[in-house]
Specification:
mainly beta, Methylamine Dehydrogenase, Chain H, 2 domains, four-stranded antiparallel sheet, 2 helices
Length: about 350
C-alpha cells in the first residue's frame, strides 16, 4: 500500500509539472477567495469565476471561461469541484470533464478528460488528491487525478443519478429514483468491484439528492421525505433525522455541504433557505433555516470553513445568482455578498477556491 501511495504521489507531482503549476505555499495563504460555477449551457458550457471581497461586501465576475464542452445536466449537484490547485466541471452533453487550474489569483482551463467509452452524460464529480470520481447516466468511474486516465468503472442500471461523493474507504452515489449506492474503493482510492444498494426506511427514501462525507460517514438528503437528512456509516447502518416542518412540499432539504465540526448545511429549495443540521455519528437534529432570496440548487463550504456559497434562481426574476454567507464560530450564517445578474437563467454546481 505504501509503494502504491508513493507511486500516486510521484505521478501527481509529474502531472502538476506538466501542467505548468509551480507550488507557492506561502503565496497560497494570501490568495483571494474565488467562487466558481457553470452556465450548464447545452450549446456551449462555460465556467464563471467570481471574486469575493468581504470588506466591500461584493462578489464580482472575474472571468468567464468556455469549457470546450456542452452542458445540459439537471437535478444534480457537484457539477463543479475544486481541490487544492485543481478543479473540474462536468460537460453533460459532451461526455467529458474540463480540468481547471488555479494560477495565483486566476483560474484557467486545462483541457478535457473523456469518460470511459461506455459511460455517458456526467452529472457530478468529486475530487481527492489522487482520484476524480464521476457519476454518469449509466456508470460511476474514477480517473487518476489530475492526469485524467480512467482508473476504475462501475456499471449502473439506474440513470437517475444526482451526486457522487467519496469517503475514506467507500464512495456513494445518490439516485433520485429512491436509492443510495455504496461503491467500494481500492487501496489507491479508485472504484473497485460493483455497487450495492443500501436499504433505506420508508420515511427516508423519497428522492435522494445532495450528499457529503464526514470522514467515513455519509450524509444525504432524501428531499421529499419527512426525515430529510440521513447518516449512513461504512457498515450501511442508517440513521434518519427529522427535517424542517412542515415537510415536503413546504420544505425539502435537497443539496448538502459539510461544515466544520458536526455542522451540515442543506439547500432547501421549496423553503428558499439554507437549513442547518447538527449531528454526531449516529443521529442529529435540525437547527434552523436561514433565508435565501430565491430557490437554491447547490452549495459549498470553503476550504478554510469561513464561507458558504449558494447558487440560486432569484425570486425577482433576474435569473441565476450566487450568495456568499460568512460562517461564525458557532456555525451560524450571515449574508456577506450577492452577485449581480449575468444573463444566465440558472447555474449548475458551485465550488470555492482559496
Amino acid at each position: 500500500m505504501t509503494v502504491k501511495h508513493n507511486l500516486y504521489r510521484v505521478s501527481a507531482l509529474l502531472a502538476t509539472l506538466v501542467l505548468g503549476i509551480v507550488p507557492a505555499i506561502a503565496a497560497d495563504s494570501q490568495r483571494e477567495t474565488l467562487v466558481v460555477t457553470s452556465t450548464n449551457d447545452p450549446a456551449g458550457n462555460a465556467v464563471i469565476v467570481f471574486k469575493l471581497n468581504p470588506a466591500a461586501a461584493t462578489l464580482t465576475v472575474a472571468d468567464e471561461l468556455p469549457t470546450g464542452g456542452q452542458g445540459g445536466a439537471s437535478g444534480n449537484a457537484g457539477a463543479v469541484q475544486f481541490k487544492d490547485a485543481f478543479g473540474a466541471v462536468v460537460n453533460f452533453g459532451s461526455n467529458n470533464l474540463t480540468r481547471l487550474v488555479r494560477d495565483g489569483s486566476a483560474i484557467r482551463t486545462a483541457g478535457t478528460i473523456s469518460l470511459a467509452p461506455n459511460c455517458a452524460q456526467p452529472v457530478s464529480v468529486a475530487l481527492d488528491h489522487y482520484q476524480a470520481y464521476v457519476l454518469g447516466a449509466n456508470c460511476a468511474e474514477t480517473h487518476s487525478w489530475p492526469q485524467g486516465s480512467v482508473s476504475g468503472t462501475v456499471s449502473l442500471s439506474d440513470a437517475s443519478g444526482a451526486q457522487i461523493v467519496a469517503g475514506e474507504t467507500w464512495a456513494a452515489a445518490t439516485l433520485k429514483s429512491g436509492s443510495v449506492l455504496q461503491l467500494p474503493l481500492s487501496a489507491n482510492g479508485s472504484l473497485a468491484g460493483s455497487s450495492s444498494t443500501i436499504s433505506l426506511p420508508s420515511d427516508a427514501n423519497n428522492t435522494p439528492l445532495g450528499a457529503a462525507f464526514w470522514g467515513n460517514i455519509l450524509g444525504f438528503n432524501p428531499a421529499h421525505s419527512p426525515d430529510s437528512f440521513v447518516l449512513i456509516d461504512s457498515h450501511a447502518n442508517v440513521f434518519p433525522i427529522l427535517g424542517p416542518q412542515p415537510a415536503y412540499p413546504s420544505n425539502a432539504p435537497c443539496w448538502l455541504a459539510k461544515g466544520t465540526g458536526n455542522i451540515w448545511y442543506s439547500g432547501n429549495s421549496p423553503g428558499q433557505a439554507v437549513s442547518i443540521f447538527f449531528s454526531d455519528g449516529q443521529g442529529g437534529t435540525f437547527y434552523k433555516s436561514v433565508p435565501v432570496a430565491g430557490i437554491p440548487t447547490d452549495l459549498t463550504v470553503s476550504p478554510d470553513g469561513k464561507w458558504l456559497a449558494v447558487i440560486y434562481t432569484a425570486s425577482d426574476g433576474s435569473g441565476a445568482r450566487v450568495a456568499v454567507f460568512a460562517i461564525d464560530h458557532y456555525g451560524d450564517l450571515s449574508l456577506t455578498a450577492t452577485s449581480a445578474p449575468v444573463g444566465v437563467t440558472s447555474f449548475n454546481g458551485v465550488a470555492i477556491s482559496q
